[in-house]
Design brief:
This protein has 232 residues and is an alpha/beta fold. It has a domain of 160 residues: Rossmann fold (3-Layer(aba) Sandwich), CATH 3.40.50.150. 28% of the residues lie in helices and 28% in strands.
């Protein structure tokens, strides 16, 4: 169980446990003006719940192919103040069709594309880009986003360039933040926001440092996540 300021997340039955990646994306994604949001591969439902907390008007659909994850996400959502605005669906996102386009898609996607796969099916599905490849994500974003709609993802930095190549001339990179775990280190994660549009964009790029060398959290990271973490 992981306690946030305004909700609690259970992750006992979900292959992908609560981690920094999901919190980063949930806090970083610019959802303030969105009416319809899709959480692609929701896992515990964390990012969908964070979006609902940050935007009091948004309607959120969250999908996952793993039955246990969906059941746990539904329980997590039911215990929040925003349950009526979040719909959790058990389905393959490649087969999901919406009656109305989305303003924003958020995803903490599978990212191990070449490494040895886990023998556990649920964890393999969650961690490896086998059932939801980067090509799938881009294709579904093209199909499900309205014109001008955006896709926000978090990936290991070494995978970010591959994702950008897949998205090239289909979704335009609008914003990129490299995440450094400890001051002075190399980026480990990259947050990216793409837009479905016909014109090329010049992305805004910056860096987020989580901790100083002495272990203290940076003011930058505290400001980003202060609405969620209890100790901030």
């Amino acid at each position: 169980m992981f306690r946030f300021k305004h909700f609690t997340i259970e992750d006992e039955h979900t292959a992908m446990k609560i981690g920094t990646d999901g919190v980063l994306l949930g806090a970083w994604a610019d959802v303030a003006s969105d009416c319809r949001i899709l959480d692609m591969g929701t896992g515990t439902g964390l990012i969908a719940i964070m979006a609902a907390q940050r935007n009091a008007e948004a309607r959120i659909v969250a999908v996952d192919i793993v039955e246990d994850a969906v059941a746990e996400a539904r329980r997590n959502v039911a215990n929040t103040a925003w349950a009526e605005r979040i719909e959790i669906l058990h389905c393959d996102v490649n087969e999901y069709h919406a009656d109305e386009k989305f303003d924003h898609i958020v995803s903490n996607p599978p990212f191990f594309t070449e490494t040895l796969q886990s023998p556990d099916e649920a964890r393999r599905t969650a961690r490896h880009a086998t059932t939801l490849t980067y090509e799938n994500i881009v294709e579904r974003a093209e199909a499900l986003l309205r014109d001008g709609g955006r896709l926000s993802v978090v990936l290991p930095t070494e995978c970010a360039q591959l994702f950008r190549r897949v998205a090239f001339e289909r979704l335009w990179l609008r914003r990129l933040t490299d995440v450094v775990t400890v001051e002075g280190g190399a980026p480990k994660r990259t947050l990216m926001e793409f837009q479905r549009c016909s014109e090329s964009l010049m992305p805004r790029c910056d860096t987020l440092v989580i901790q100083h060398r002495d272990g203290r959290y940076t003011e930058q990271y505290r400001t980003l996540t202060q609405d969620f973490y209890l100790n901030f």
